[in-house]
Write a structure and sequence with these properties.
By secondary structure, the chain is of the alpha/beta class. It has a single domain, classed as Rossmann fold (3-Layer(aba) Sandwich). The chain is 43% helix and 14% strand. α3 links the parallel β3 and β4. The chain is globular.
């Protein structure tokens, strides 16, 4: 996962400590996210869905950070199979290769969706909360939960592995506009509405620091939520508007009404445009409350915190500097 958003920032964090870093990349993967530091890395060709490639890649490795994954919020069967292959089978392959090569320690970068959703007016979830994403049928969340099952199996076999669960991650380096899509949408005024849910947000550099700390002092078999502010999407949109200097009226859109609107426009000449702006499952998730407590990571990993406005400002300035807005 070295070419991804979190992975590419983690690589930089490790290089600052003068670590010798080996980056596993697929044959056709772009390394644009690492272009400025590629001369300081050792690249190994491999694929987490091909077990044999990992068995040789992990030979002689002391630590492994498993940050690879596939995120998809839709429902087409082909993509669901890809979620299974990468998030579940791929994690199993990573764990088995680490066991085979006697890797000293592994960090598995999971997701808050593997923990659950706190729901409206509910207490923020922590690492021990019951998983409940099955209620809305988000297959991505199911695969992240199952990936942690694979980690637990490996730990029972003797692997020293720690799980981290990053929240909704903002920050510089988000070239694929993951969380950054919200910044882009507000800045360009492309979406006039916001969902009625809320989300736990965190900066990517805080996540990278905490992942390294988990490698250093995290407890084997434990999971650590890496989050920050819990905000509604209305509050988040207002923060982004303030940071970007973009003012525009946005109206609240309840999920049931959103689905009716989507169905109407899906059979209209606007179908293509609507499909780009509106993902029903993603909106369903955004209508829930994914609030989390990071007290365990703060206490045990000494994870730092900061208001999310600082992260959004850094991300916005980075996007402008890179000409991505």
């Amino acid at each position: 996962g070295s070419t991804g958003f979190i992975g590419s920032r983690l690589v930089r964090r490790l290089l600052r400590e003068d670590s010798e870093v080996y980056a596993l990349v697929r044959k056709r993967s772009s390394i644009d996210a690492l272009s400025d530091i590629k001369d300081r890395l050792h690249f190994i060709e491999g694929d987490i869905t091909v077990a044999s490639s990992l068995e040789s890649a992990f030979r002689g490795m002391d630590q492994v950070y498993h940050a690879a994954g596939f995120t998809y919020m839709g429902g087409r069967n082909g993509k669901d199979r890809l979620l299974d292959a990468i998030n579940v089978d791929g994690t199993r392959n990573v764990m088995n290769a680490a066991l085979l090569n006697n890797v000293r320690r592994v960090i598995h970068v999971s997701s808050i969706t593997a923990v659950g959703m706190s729901k409206k007016n509910g207490k923020p979830f922590d690492e021990s909360s019951p998983w409940n994403f099955g209620e809305i049928g988000l297959h991505y969340a199911e695969t992240k939960r199952l990936s942690e099952v694979e980690v637990k199996k490996a730990v029972e076999k003797g692997l020293d592995c720690v799980i981290v669960n990053p929240a909704f991650v903002f920050g510089a380096g988000d070239v694929n506009f993951n969380a950054g899509r919200l910044i882009k949408d507000v800045y360009h005024r492309t979406v006039p509405f916001y969902p009625l849910g809320g989300i736990c947000v965190v900066d990517v550099e805080i996540v990278a620091d905490a992942v390294v700390r988990a490698m250093e002092v995290g407890r084997t078999g434990e999971r650590y939520i890496l989050g920050g502010d819990n905000v509604t999407y209305k509050e988040l949109s207002n923060i982004i508007s303030r940071v970007t200097g973009t003012r525009r009226f946005m109206f609240p859109l309840p999920y049931p009404i959103a689905i009716l609107v989507h169905r109407f426009f899906s059979v209209s000449p606007f179908k293509t445009r609507i499909s780009k702006l509106f993902n029903p499952m993603m909106f369903r998730v955004a209508s829930e409350f994914l609030y989390f407590s990071s007290e365990k990571a703060i206490r045990e990993l000494d994870m730092r915190t900061e208001p999310i406005e600082f992260s959004i400002r850094r991300a916005f300035e980075w996007y402008k500097k890179e000409g991505l807005l």
